[in-house]
Amino acid sequence: MNELSLVASILERDTLRYTPAGIPIVGGVLQHGSTQTEARMDRQVDFEIPAVAAGEISGRFANAELGAMYRFTGFLARKSRHSKSLVFHIIDFSAA
Predict the structure, then answer these.
(1) At a CB cut-off of 8 Å and minimum separation 6, what does 9 contact?
(2) How many CB atoms lie within 10 A of CB 74?
(3) Is the keyword DNA-binding assigned to this protein (predicted)?
(4) Where are the beta strands (DSSP E) in 15-79?
(5) pTM of the model
(6) Which of 24, 62, 65, 70 lies 20 to 30 Å from 40, alpha-carbon distance?
(7) Residue 60: which H helix or E strand, with range?
(8) 3-state DSSP call for residue 9?
(9) Whether the Cβ atoms of residue 75 and residue 91 lie closer than 8 Å to each other
(10) Cα separation of 43 and 13, whole Å?
C-alpha cells in the first residue's frame, strides 16, 4: 500500500495549468515540522517535499492559503518514469 498522511503548510505553489489531456494540475512545495519519537528518543523532523494536485482537487489546492496548516492525504510516486526523485500526489486535504 502506498498511502501518506501529512500535516504541513503550503510553502510554494505554481499557477494552475492543464496537461495535454486537459486535466487541471498545480504543483507546489509542502513544509512539515514536528517532533517524532524514534528508539525512545525525541527527534525534530523538518523537511520540504514537492507535491502535485491533479483533477478536481487542483482548484482547491490552487486557492488554499499559503502558510496555513492542512492535513494532506495522497501517495508518493516518481517525478517521471526515469527519475529517482519522489513527488507527493495530493488526493485530498483539509484544515489541520
Answers:
(1) 30, 31, 66, 67, 68, 69, 70
(2) 21
(3) yes
(4) 17-18, 24-38, 41-54, 69-78
(5) 0.93
(6) 70
(7) helix 56-63
(8) strand
(9) yes
(10) 28
Report pLDDT for 77: 97
Q: Are 38 and 55 in contact (CB under 8 A)?
A: no
**83 SS3 class:** coil
pLDDT in tens, 7-37: 999 999 999 999 999 999 999 999 999 999 9
Spatial separation of the C-alpha atoms in residues 92 and 21, rounded to whole Å: 22
489531456: which residue's cell?
21
Q: Which residue has the cell 519522489?
A: 86
Pairing of strands 86-95, 17-18: unpaired
